[in-house]
Amino acid sequence: xxxxxxxxxxxxxxxxxxxxxxxxxxxxxxxxxxxxxxxxxxxxxxxxxxxxxxxxxxxxxxxxxxxxxxxxxxxxxxxxxxxxxxxxxxxxxxxxxxxxxxxxxxxxxxxxxxxx
Amino acid sequence: xxxxxxxxxxxxxxxxxxxxxxxxxxxxxxxxxxxxxxxxxxxxxxxxxxxxxxxxxxxxxxxxxxxxxxxxxxxxxxxxxxxxxxxxxxxxxxxxxxxxxxxxxxxxxxxxxx
Lengths: 116, 114
Known about the structure:
Helix content of chain B: under 10%
Helix content of chain A: under 10%
Number of helices of chain A: 0
Distance between the termini of chain B: 40 Å
Number of strands of chain B: 13
Strand content of chain A: over 45%
Largest sheet of chain B: 6 strands, mixed
Oligomer: heterodimer
Shape of chain A: globular
């Protein structure tokens, strides 16, 4: 149980294009999902907290107009990187917490974005 | 704000025991978690302490002292597959609906050698 999937697992795009990343909880309902970004050999940095049916809460320094988050259902949250640039290249990871498992966060496999 | 300190690298021999320390300074605190991450993979949950003391899960144990703002992860009977990065993470705030935010340390890269 507590499986989180992400799609795609990797994507390469041209500068200026937009990329959508999906995060799904497969065997449970996730009221809250989290989006992280991780640069090589660095830690995970929380980008935003996504609550089903409401606007995401973004961390300081994260542009909400550039990183659009939609949490339309209890099993799906999407992150859209708009007008991507090379500096947006990173490993994007989502997670969901499971109340019955002590509120621990379970992570998706991540999406590696490369912007040319 | 939040800050967590843990060693950047640790090397240990297969079969040995290794301890990875974590000290933290946070505005709020609901618990300390440990995650393992292999290169190119996603973090996987290892252990969690909300109260002082030792939690044991198989070869892995985790300890917390809230008064000292300190915790550690203990790995016993090290195996080659334990080579990975290990992150401590605190829960500094409640996000609502039973969820808590996590703030991660910078990670400790563990190398297990034969």
